[in-house]
Design brief:
11 strands, three-stranded antiparallel sheet, globular, binds 2-oxoglutaric acid, six-stranded antiparallel sheet, alpha+beta, binds fe (ii) ion, about 325 residues
Length: about 325
């Protein structure tokens, strides 16, 4: 079945990415996850209020302002409460994670899997390198460390994302894996609120050197990038971007008044290494063996609960291959 038309397929092959407009229905497919996250925020606000850490639960505020107010007032960032993954640094028994049924429904969305079937074939594995990114307006994050040289807010997935390739954030065992990134706009993503930027054709340059910095995570230094081929990708809610694992990309800071929400998900053919084997993935589609598909959101949640238990207190292996010894990182 071909879901992508000829132009879209050619764009993906030539540019290393394609945006499929309106692939998901905002009301039917995306509002339900926002309802789940509103529940997560409600519980968080009540906990913090009862602990005396905020002056009000702010239930009268809309989601974005409520979250931002809580970040500002507590001088903390609670991205882990919403994210659909565990920490890659250290896991504890009470570590927050949100792997709700509606998130699972997005991961298994048949229209996303249809496009992936065009790109990587009918045996599709949901790679556990997956995030929801709820980026607050930067003006609510004055307490978060800002790198002086780049001006960027560090860490937590709440600031602008530096230039990188997703192949660079997995272990070398997955270098030959046909991993595809799926970036879902849950709210409109604009230049003002921090949409994605990609470098056209960069997937053909292979894996580039990434530099690791404590605060800012992994990034490809500017001299290695073809910055004259940057494409800025504003997207509407429900638009979905599909990207090759070697396509260089970054995102802009959020200078708007509201949160920018997106999923970045990854998929690869069943049987190929995910590059993050300590976390659980699942078969999202199999034409050869439909019974192997995971369809139960509770069973999915259990895989993460079991992983948290297994990794609690364990020494986690480094989740990437980079140090900053390369002179290009100086
Ligand atoms: O949304 C972002 O800021 C970055 C997303 C990203 O790096 C990805 O989709 O792989
Ligand atoms: Fe990425």
């Amino acid at each position: 079945m071909n879901v992508l038309n000829v132009e879209q397929r050619q764009a993906y092959d030539a540019d290393g990415f394609v945006v499929v407009r309106g692939l998901l229905d905002p009301t039917e497919d995306l509002d339900p996850v926002l309802v789940e996250y509103a529940g997560v925020l409600e519980r968080l606000a009540r906990e913090l209020y009862e602990a005396g850490q905020i002056a009000s639960t702010y239930e009268e505020l809309p989601f974005g302002l409520r979250l931002s107010q809580i970040y500002l007032e507590t001088r903390r960032v609670f991205s882990g409460q919403f994210d659909c993954t565990l920490s890659m640094v250290s896991v504890n028994a009470n570590e927050p994670i949100w792997v709700g049924a509606e998130v699972f429904r997005v991961l298994r969305h048949q229209r996303i899997l249809d496009v992936l079937e065009d790109l990587i074939g009918p045996e599709i594995y949901s790679n556990p390198v997956q995030h929801v990114r709820i980026k607050p307006p930067e003006k609510y994050l004055p307490h978060v460390y800002r790198d002086e040289r780049s001006g960027r807010i560090a860490g937590f997935g709440v600031g602008a994302t530096p230039w990188h390739q997703d192949n660079g954030v997995v272990l070398p065992v997955a270098d030959e894996t046909e991993m595809t990134t799926v970036w879902v706009a849950v709210t409109d993503a604009t230049v003002e609120n921090g949409c994605l930027e990609v470098i056209r054709g960069s997937h053909r340059d292979g894996l580039l050197t990434h530099c690791a910095s404590d605060g800012l995570g992994l990034s490809i230094p500017d001299p290695l990038l073809s910055l004259d081929r940057v494409v800025t990708c504003p997207m509407k809610r429900g638009d979905v971007l599909f990207m090759h694992r070697c396509t260089c990309h970054s995102s802009l800071p959020n200078h708007s008044e509201d949160v920018r929400i997106s999923y970045d998900l990854r998929y690869n053919p069943v049987g190929q290494p995910t590059g993050r084997e300590i976390f659980p993935g699942f078969t999202a589609r199999s034409r050869a063996n439909p019974a192997s598909e995971l369809r139960d959101p509770e069973a999915w949640k259990r895989t993460w609960d079991e992983t948290r238990l297994r990794l609690t207190g364990a020494e986690l292996p480094l989740h990437h291959r980079w140090n900053s010894d390369d002179p290009v990182c100086a």
